[in-house]
Amino acid sequence: MDRMSVINFIVNNDKLELLKARLNRFNPFKILKIQDHEIRHSNVLSWILDPNGNHNFDDRILKRFLLKVILKPENDEILEHMNIVYEIQQMSLMDMKVYREFMNIDIVLVSEHQHMVVYIENKVHSSEHSNQLKRYYDFIQRTYPGYIVIPIFLTLDGIAASHKSYYSASYDDLLDTIEFIISNYKERTSAEVTAFLNYYITVLKEKYFMDEELRKLCKDIYQHNKDVIDMIYSVGNQIDIEPAINQFLETYKDVVFVSKTNTTFWFGIADFVKARVLPQENWGGGFPICLWFSEYYGKLKLTFEVGPFEDASKRVVFLNKLESCEIKISQKAKEPGRKYTRIYSDTQHIKDWGDSDEVYEAMKKLYEKNDLVDMKQKVIKAINEIQW
Q1: For residue range 318-359, what is the model confidence (pLDDT) as tens digits?
Q2: Which of 17, 126, 141, 246 sits a CA distance of 20 to 30 A from 92?
Q3: 33-189: which CATH topology?
């Protein structure tokens, strides 16, 4: 790869200029930097979901979003009966009152007529803390006894909440809902509202997802400049978490090293060792349950997962024991042939992967979170109560 190839890629590259122009289009949300502030997302979301909002879509957005979230396959275990689906389809939610930061809950919607409460904990960059989901759930149950309660944990990726009663939802669910309503009911609203929602859709797609037009343009640029782009990326965006791993191992003496690469680090816990009955070259270094850090779309992700057992029946026994220790396990995880069951995951945003201190601090934050500490104690209890 010579110097001129890089220069030719940058200078007089029409498609690259088109991509820059595409990303630099006027968008008021970019000017306000809404994409970087969770509270501003919640402000927009509360207006969108408000049946009496001046968008004039009535309760259509709210009902479609609720039904989409409730019927997601990953929420099967939370949906106790299908009656709620049919009831929401038929009921009017026009009396819903919307509250922001009600007892620190991001969004609360209350229908006195339908005896229903929908509340949303919205996590864009941050994550759960201080057992907040349980506190919110208990508060709503006390405040609205006898009401239908629909708790929603909204994240970019739709990760599962630590509390078993929360429906998981992603911003992809939100985008799909808004786009459907605009496409099918735009005659109900003004051009200003449509433009506002389209600006919001655009900033979400550019920041967190990618629409098809932008994807095609990026693919075309890459196909015609693959060698140059690969070289620029490999030099400018090298990820090597090994220095942070070394700091992490020095700090946490309970951690048992399993394996590492430039972008992943697998480990167990000293209290898991009695369950290390598989050959150590197997999944998870022989542990039946293991943790690992990994790079995940620019973020550092911590995953906690039950892996495969040589004896599938013993795996089900272990899953049942985890369940008895108050760890949420779906019935599908116990079906024949299932090998992997994720019980926890969380992410931390990384600005500079070249800064090992930042990566290490992110590892610490993820590892020391109260919900993970609680999860580890439950797993240790389950391991100690089984004959291995």
Answers
A1: 999 999 999 999 888 898 888 899 999 999 988 888 788 899
A2: 141
A3: Trna Endonuclease; Chain: A, domain 1 (3.40.1350)
Rounded to an integer, what distance in angstroms lies between the CA atom of residue 85 and that of residue 257?
47
SS3 119: strand
What's the pTM? 0.51
Q: Which tokens hold the place of 388?
A: 């291995």
> Which class for 46: exposed (0-12), middle (13-18), buried (19 or more C-beta within 10 A)?
buried
Which two three-digit tokens encode residue 91? 């009921």
**Residue appearing with tokens 């990026």:** 218
Q: What is the DSSP string of 190-210?
A: -HHHHHHHHHHHHHHHHHTS-
Q: Could you tell me what percent of the chain has a pLDDT over 70? A: 81
The domain spans of the chain are 33-189, 242-384
Reported as a single tens digit per residue, the pLDDT across 269-305 is 999 998 887 777 778 898 989 999 998 878 999 999 9
Closest CA to 120 of 139, 135, 107: 107
Residue in 138, 119, 74, 132 with CA at minimum distance from that of residue 328 = 74
